[in-house]
Design goal:
single chain, about 200 residues, mainly alpha, 2 domains, about 55% helix
Length: about 200
């Protein structure tokens, strides 16, 4: 019977890496893995670089992905537009979720009330509703992923849990909109003349 070696983790350098600068600063010990540090090239008064101790090339790659998620959360998501809409949404994530909920409920009601008869108007209205639902669903997923795995600094853990649950409820509403709209789109390829079915 041959001796089998136990599987071990692949060896990789543990390094201090800045995703903004794409710069490696030093090697360090494994016990420091996942610790954040301040990049020397960053603003000392208001740091903006995502710099962390990572392991190997995959660690650097995923830290860069986290950088894009964080940039989306703080710059691209609609509640950040127009300087937080004049400060209305600044530090008020609940307001953002409430307005999203109202928009999705209105879209759900519109989708439910639209006639199944195909027309240019119906296609246009359904397209607008689908775009809104898709965008809000995508935004919810990206922002909540960034909050949970990247920024990681909630104002209050219980508040974050409740808001995450409310966000997932909104994703369910988005899927409800798709379920209502897509069955109303005629499947032309399935409509065969009666004589071909005999």
């Amino acid at each position: 019977m041959t001796n089998q070696k136990k599987p071990s983790r692949m060896q990789a350098d543990v390094i201090a890496y800045c995703a903004k600068c794409k710069a490696e600063y030093c090697e360090t010990e494994l016990k420091n893995l996942d610790y954040n540090f301040q990049c020397p090239k960053d603003d000392q008064n208001g740091p903006h670089h995502l710099a962390r101790v990572v392991k190997g090339p995959s660690g650097k790659f995923w830290l860069r992905i986290e950088k894009y998620l964080l940039a989306y959360e703080f710059s691209v998501t609609p509640k950040r537009w127009f300087k937080n809409w004049g400060g209305f949404f600044k530090g008020r994530a609940g307001r953002d979720l409430a307005i999203r909920f109202v928009i999705l409920i209105v879209a759900l009601n519109l989708a439910s009330s639209l006639c199944d008869k195909v027309s240019i108007k119906l296609i246009f209205q359904n397209t607008i509703i689908i775009i809104i639902a898709l965008f809000l669903m995508f935004d919810n997923l990206i922002v909540n992923t960034s909050i949970v795995f990247v920024s990681r600094f909630p104002a209050n853990p219980l508040r974050s849990v409740l808001m995450t649950i409310f966000s997932f409820i909104q994703i369910i509403i988005s899927y409800s909109i798709f379920y209502i709209i897509f069955p109303s789109v005629p499947m032309i390829v399935r409509h065969l003349p009666l004589e071909k079915l005999v």
